[in-house]
Design brief:
Layout lengths: L14 H7 L2 H4 L3 H17 L5 H20 L11 H13 L12 H38 L3 E6 L2 E7 H26 L1 E2 L15 H7 L4 E2 L3 H6 L2 H27 L7 E2 L18 H24 L14 H24 L1 E2 L1 H9 L5 H9 L5 H18 L8 H7 L7 H4 L2 H6 L9 H25 L1
Parallel strand pairs: 3-4
Antiparallel strand pairs: 1-2, 5-6
Length: 467
């Protein structure tokens, strides 16, 4: 195999080393990006007078043939090429002869891979924003179905206050809308063209880099060639955002798995997204949720891996940067599958609203409402808190709920209690009391659903515009 650099060497590379340092087995995934960038570069070379019109046309035809052959014949991608750039150059020469080698005039693999990666990440960002739109659409659909269904909200793993089930699901939409915004921010910083930077000092060919940027759909050309060829901040930012999505998916999956246990019983695991036990016939295991939870760690590891690879690199390209692609590709594949499985699970899972309501009616989740009642009657909150706390203990000792003592009993703890206290302790009243923007009062949740649908529509519109 003739390498792109062997002229300098008196001896051939050790075969084991050559195979070990190759990246083609995984960076061939970037063929589409490499062909697009190479086609644009051929046009730039023609405008600069490096290629004749005939050479330009032949090279574009040859690049198109490479793409067609790769799509129709998987064996075509079998090669001993060092990397995707080497592969395209070899195939191009096969198709158009030695003039194919002129395409590398004024160009370096350092800028090529930086360009290919930016094209790849930009496309992935758009794809994940669409997936997040589908996921949030599923969350909103199920939130609307829950309507006025209630469940306990938890702090410290203990039942704390009653909330609407829709409010619980809407909490997750907030997380994922933030993630979609992070992806948009990442796209803006990714949308810069490195091509034309040469190995590190800029091309020696008088290229129109602004025109080249427009051709490839970039918003601008990079401002510094040395930074452009060694920068992987955009990959780090992208992997961090995928890690954030993974974190949020993991939190949701953990709660969903917990709520599907017999002890909670708020959810029924759908058969299509569960597995059984090889030893215990009665089991239905939440493997989909558990794997979503675990896959987040894999994505975190990809981000951490690249941080470590970059942490002490000097400016200019170093072979260390070859280690950016495998974690990037794996994180993309892992997240794509996780979002698909999570969306399918959510669309099919059944909520046990009666069990949710029973749990919300127990455990004194109206205690905060009783304290609020007293504060509205002039009792300082700390005193109200203490009085209701002693009342709760009294009810626990007797095995009754907070709404069960007679008014005379209630007034032994606080004379400010009136006959209307019982109305304030009902489930509907407790929910309605949280009547602030962002609260769980039914009217506020209905308004939040409408706002979330508007944000989802805007996200979809932005995704369509980027397509």
């Amino acid at each position: 195999m003739k390498t792109m650099w062997e002229g300098r060497f008196a001896q051939s590379a050790d075969p084991t080393f050559y195979q070990w340092q190759r990246s083609f087995l995984y960076d061939r995934r970037l063929l589409g990006e490499e062909l697009a960038a190479s086609s644009a570069y051929a046009e730039a070379l023609a405008r600069a007078g490096v290629l004749t019109a005939a050479e330009h046309d032949a090279i574009l035809s040859g690049l198109a043939q490479i793409g067609e052959r790769a799509r129709s014949d998987p064996a075509y991608l079998e090669s001993d090429a060092e990397d995707i750039h080497h592969f395209v150059e070899l195939r191009l020469v096969e198709h158009v002869g030695k003039m194919g080698s002129k395409l590398h005039t004024g160009r370096s693999r350092n800028e090529q891979i930086a360009t290919d990666l930016r094209l790849f990440v930009r496309k992935q960002v758009d794809g994940f924003r669409r997936q997040l739109g589908e996921w949030n659409e599923a969350l909103l659909s199920r939130a609307e179905e829950l309507d006025d269904a209630v469940l306990p909200g938890y702090t410290h793993g203990q039942r704390a206050e009653v909330i609407l089930g829709a409010h619980w699901l809407l909490a997750y939409t907030e997380m994922f809308f933030r993630d979609a915004d992070r992806l948009a921010d990442c796209r803006r910083r990714t949308d810069v063209l490195p091509l034309g930077s040469g190995a590190l000092a800029g091309s020696y060919v008088p290229l129109d880099r602004d025109q080249l940027a427009r051709k490839l759909g970039f918003s601008a050309a990079s401002a510094n060639s040395l930074d452009a060829t060694s920068d992987r901040d955009f990959v780090l930012e992208f992997l961090f955002t995928l890690s954030s999505i993974g974190l949020h998916l993991s939190r949701w999956a953990h709660e969903a798995a917990l709520f599907a246990t017999t002890e909670f019983g708020f959810l029924d695991l759908p058969d299509a997204y569960a597995t059984g036990s090889s030893a215990l016939p009665q089991k239905k295991n939440p493997d989909a949720l558990e794997l979503i939870r675990a896959k987040a760690g894999r994505i975190f590891a990809a981000c951490t891996s690249l941080f470590i690879s970059l942490k002490a690199l000097p400016l200019g390209y170093s072979k260390d940067l070859q280690e950016d692609k495998e974690p990037l590709f794996d994180a993309c594949d892992t997240m794509t599958a996780a979002l698909k499985i999570a969306t399918g699970f959510l669309r099919t899972v059944r909520f046990n609203t009666e069990r949710m309501r029973q749990a919300a009616e127990a455990s004194f989740l109206n205690a905060a409402a009783a304290a609020a009642y007293l504060t509205r009657r002039g009792v300082p909150f700390r005193d109200a808190h203490d009085r209701v706390g002693r009342l709760v203990q009294h009810c626990l000792d007797r095995g009754i709920g907070l709404e069960d003592p007679t008014l005379e009993e209630l007034r032994r703890f606080s004379p400010e209690f009136g006959q209307d206290i019982y109305a304030h302790l009902s489930l509907d009243a407790v929910l309605a009391a949280h009547d602030v923007h962002g609260g769980t009062a039914p009217a506020r949740v209905k308004s939040a659903l409408a706002e979330a649908h508007a944000r989802l529509a805007q996200l979809k519109e932005n995704c369509n515009a980027a397509a």
